[in-house]
Design brief:
Blueprint lengths: L1 E7 L4 H7 L2 H5 L2 E8 L5 H8 L4 E3 L8 H14 L4 E4 L8 H6 L4 E5 L11 H8 L3 E8 L9 E8 L6 H29 L1
Parallel strand pairs: 1-2, 1-4, 2-3, 4-5
Antiparallel strand pairs: 5-6, 6-7
Bound molecules: 5-O-phosphono-beta-D-ribofuranosylamine.
The site of 5-O-phosphono-beta-D-ribofuranosylamine has 13 residues, from helix 1 and strand 5.
Length: about 190
């Protein structure tokens, strides 16, 4: 059994695809808690509907980021969390969380890192006029989208494609790739 916390700030489509993936459940993945920094985010209802506890916490209620993350660390300890999965969590992770979970925080990014890091990965690739972009799953380190890459999938940008069409294609790939990569990691852990 691997106990995970998912961190998300928005819609939560990746959250859903992970939570509803039967192969992940069969492999022993247990989503113990959703950590969300936006009280109105749609992902909260998605967790509640599935009976997954939610921990809603906003940085503005703390004097600094370290204190904010320390409260999250304390909460995760209650669930004995092994691994953190970021799924559209729109904040940089700092050393307070990283030192508790070294190489145990995983992120999905909607571009082929190291190209187009940051919060507008899809749009930045589109505007740059590149013919190929993609999706990256990587470990978190102290930088912004700089940690070691676990898996990538490329996606062509067609000449007459709109940004909305590209976004939808990228999300479709994300929804397949993230659960698949998590499953591989789980199976590798079992072999350890
Ligand atoms: C995804 O595109 C992910 O790559 C990025 O944020 C988006 C989250 O979407 N980090 P959702 O909330 O999972 O629908």
């Amino acid at each position: 059994m691997v106990k995970v916390a998912i961190f998300a700030s928005g819609t939560g489509s990746n959250f859903e695809f992970i939570a509803d993936n039967q192969a992940l459940k069969d492999a022993g993945l247990e989503i113990e808690v959703l950590v969300c920094d936006r009280p109105k985010a749609a992902v909260i209802k998605k967790a509640q509907r599935r009976g997954i506890p939610t921990f809603i916490i906003q940085p503005k209620d703390f004097e600094n980021r370290s204190h904010y993350e320390q409260v999250i660390v304390n909460e995760l300890a209650k669930y004995q969390i092994d691994t953190i999965l970021l799924a559209g969590y729109m904040r940089v992770i700092t050393s307070t969380l990283l030192s508790e979970y070294p190489m145990e925080i995983i992120n999905i990014h909607p571009a082929l890192l190291p190209r187009f890091p940051g919060i507008h990965g899809i749009e930045d690739a589109y505007k740059a006029g590149v013919s190929v972009t993609g999706v990256t799953i990587h470990y978190i380190d102290e930088g912004v989208d700089t940690g070691p890459i676990i898996a990538q999938q490329s996606i062509p940008i067609l000449p007459d494609e709109t940004l909305e069409q590209l976004e939808s294609k990228i999300h479709d790939v994300e929804h397949q790739l993230y659960p698949k990569v998590i499953l591989n990691l789980l199976n590798n852990k079992k072999g350890d």
